[in-house]
Design brief:
Number of domains: 2
Strand order of the largest sheet: 4-3-2-1-5-6
Largest sheet: 6 strands, mixed
CATH architecture of the largest domain: Alpha-Beta Complex
Helix content: 25-40%
CATH superfamily of the largest domain: Creatinase/methionine aminopeptidase superfamily
Structural class: alpha+beta
Radius of gyration: 21 Å
Length: about 375
């Protein structure tokens, strides 16, 4: 349950961003098929089971959530705190009629909004991309949200230990991941998990045909019952000499992030600070260094080159430098969820930055 005060805080933050862009309303798009569904949950409490939905937030007045009438059930509609629920034959036409002659920001316009709904507005509405502004407005987490984040971290960390305890060279990725997935389901994650292993430098779905060797790199990402995504994992087994050298750079990143992830620093500053140990050793980075994370798995800002967004206290970031050797195979990848505090970055899982041995058990 989300309190009325928390709902009002979220809407106020979005409306402040709307005012800066001189918008009359915002339409937040979410689709089970193409993503962004967490944005709809953030704005309405509604969890999309299938199909898609739109939330309309005017500058003044109450919000509306719009569903396609051709598929009456797209989730548990009673879970939304929005009373005005519209089932439209053509949602785009409804949005066009409702917001005619207004300047409307759209979150998910280029990626999520159904083509027929975009066409259905019939250009009666001035549609303005609002992706970055929306993400920045929700990037600073409230204490209520941080409770959900910490609960997700607890579950994800427990899942890592379940993975580690099930791991042994020669087992398949699927059977090692199964105990972790059982735990995630038991803890109420539902479908909000995306868990893989790295095969060489590539991310791969954990299949029965994927046999794990002496060194294993899991990638564990979940959202707990509160809907906030987190990412926590460590590599396991016996690293070779090249990967051991990479670990030295990882240890440097982990210490650098504690001071770099501070209010007032830019995403660019953080990227340079945490990637220095890797680039100084001549390594390439495969995946983005890090990114804001919330009820959508990947939000703006990312931690990367030339991203000048300033960090603020209570932002939450997933950090996961992905370092690849020149041979294109040896790599290292470990994930942490970090909180920006007044004193710097706090890794929420509390796991030491190291490679864990097969057979280790949780303290």
């Amino acid at each position: 349950m989300v309190s009325p005060a928390e709902i009002e805080r979220r809407y106020s933050a979005i409306r402040e961003a709307m005012a800066e862009k001189q918008l009359d309303a915002v339409v937040v798009c979410g689709s089970e098929y193409t993503g962004f569904e967490g944005a709809v949950t953030y704005m309405s409490g509604f969890v999309i089971v299938h199909r898609y939905a739109y939330v309309i937030l005017p500058r003044e007045g109450e919000p509306t959530i719009v569903f396609p009438a051709e598929a009456r059930y797209v989730g548990e509609h009673g879970t939304s705190w929005i009373d005005d629920q519209v089932f439209a034959e053509r949602p785009g036409q409804y949005i066009g009629d409702r917001l005619a002659a207004q300047r409307v920001g759209v979150y998910g316009l280029d990626y999520v909004m159904a083509v027929r709904d975009f066409a259905g507005t019939d250009m009666r509405v001035e549609l303005v991309p609002f992706d970055v502004e929306f993400d920045l407005a929700r990037a600073v987490k409230s204490e209520t949200e941080l409770e959900s984040v910490r609960d997700s971290v607890r579950i994800n960390t427990a899942g890592f230990w379940a993975f580690l305890e099930g791991y042994a060279p020669g087992k398949t990725a699927a059977e090692v991941l199964a105990p972790a997935e059982d735990l995630f389901v038991e803890e109420g994650c539902g479908r909000l998990t995306m868990n893989m292993v790295l095969v060489g430098a590539e991310f791969a779905i954990a299949r029965k045909s994927t046999v794990l060797g002496e060194f294993c790199i899991p990638s564990l990402e979940i959202a707990g019952p509160g809907g906030h995504w987190v990412e926590v994992s460590r590599s396991i087994g016996k690293p070779n000499a090249e990967v051991s050298r990479m670990l030295e750079a990882y240890e440097e990143y982990f210490e650098a992030a504690k001071t770099a992830l501070r209010p007032g620093a830019t995403s660019h500053d953080v990227h340079r600070a945490v990637s220095k140990g890797f680039t100084d050793r001549g390594y390439h980075l495969g995946h983005v260094t890090g990114h804001s994370i919330g009820m959508t798995m990947i939000e703006h800002p990312k931690i990367g080159e030339a991203i000048e967004t300033e960090l603020r206290e209570n932002m939450v970031f997933s950090m996961h430098p992905h370092v690849i050797a020149d041979n294109g195979h040896d790599c290292l990848y470990m994930q942490d969820t970090w909180l920006v505090t007044a004193d710097g970055g706090e890794p929420l899982a509390g796991l030491p930055m190291r490679i864990y041995a097969a057979g280790e058990t949780r303290p």
